[in-house]
Amino acid sequence: LNSSGFSATDANANTTFYVWYDTWGEAGVDMKDAGAETHWPDRPAADLPGPGRYWRTHTVQQIADRVADGFKDMVIRSCRTYWYYPFVILYVVYVTALIAANRNAFLALLRRHASIAVFLVLYAAVFLLASAFYNPISATGTTRYVIAHLTPFFFVLAYFTTLEPFRSTTWRIGRIHVGPRHADMVISATLAFSLAFIIWPRLMTTYGGF
């Protein structure tokens, strides 16, 4: 998750050792004392932190709470920092509505690109779980991990909305027919409002997503 003092041929201290502690303070003191910042720790293998030792010293509830706190951090910081969470919700609801209105076309699309779909689902699941689990070690929260994926995430969803037959979808609300063009206008207006009144002040006061 972060760079470390190890050479290219060594393991990353953060994802090899630090992640298996409960706090950054605990990890930093113990592993820095062992020399993990510059070389492989001067300790017997049995005394090094790892998934086996972590599993033996923590309950399932403690692990679940740690992951849940990580996901909670993602939501809270996404609202308090760069305000991207509302747009994640907007696009997810938008795309879900298109899928619901074109289920057969969506299933056909999945069959044509099954390997890509499986990869994206697995990648998202593993990365989000890992980021949530690493949260107490981060010291600055999960934003800096998640934010790097926002551009490709929004690009993929926006591109999906341009495909047929999804692009031609219409919904009837009373006597009014609405479609993707109207959804795009709502998202654009929301983004313009956020840029003018919410996001730009945070860019001036929020350093590196922390």
Can you offer a commentary on this structure?
The protein is mostly helical and 210 residues long. Helices cover 64% and strands 3% of the residues. It contains ten helices and two strands, in the order H-H-H-H-H-H-H-H-H-E-E-H. A two-stranded antiparallel sheet has the order 1-2. The chain is elongated and about 70 Å long. Mean pLDDT is 86; it is low at 1-9.
Topology:
Elements: H1 13-16, H2 24-33, H3 51-57, H4 60-80, H5 85-101, H6 103-112, H7 114-138, H8 143-146, H9 150-160, E1 171-173, E2 176-178, H10 180-205
Helix pairs in contact: 4-7, 5-9, 5-10
Q: Which word captures the global form? A: elongated
Helix content: 55-70%
Return the structural class: mainly alpha
Helix count equals: 10
Distance between the termini: 15 Å
Give the strand order of the largest sheet, numbering strands 1, 2, ... along the chain. 1-2
> SSE order, as H and E?
HHHHHHHHHEEH
Sheet having the most strands: 2 strands, antiparallel
In percent, how much strand structure appears in the residues? under 5%
Q: How many β-strand stretches?
A: 2
- Unreliable spans are 1-9
Oligomer: single chain
- Please state the CA-atom Rg, rounded to the nearest Å: 22 Å
Short description:
This protein is an all-alpha fold.
Keywords for this structure?
3% strand, elongated, mainly alpha, single chain, 210 residues, 10 helices, two-stranded antiparallel sheet
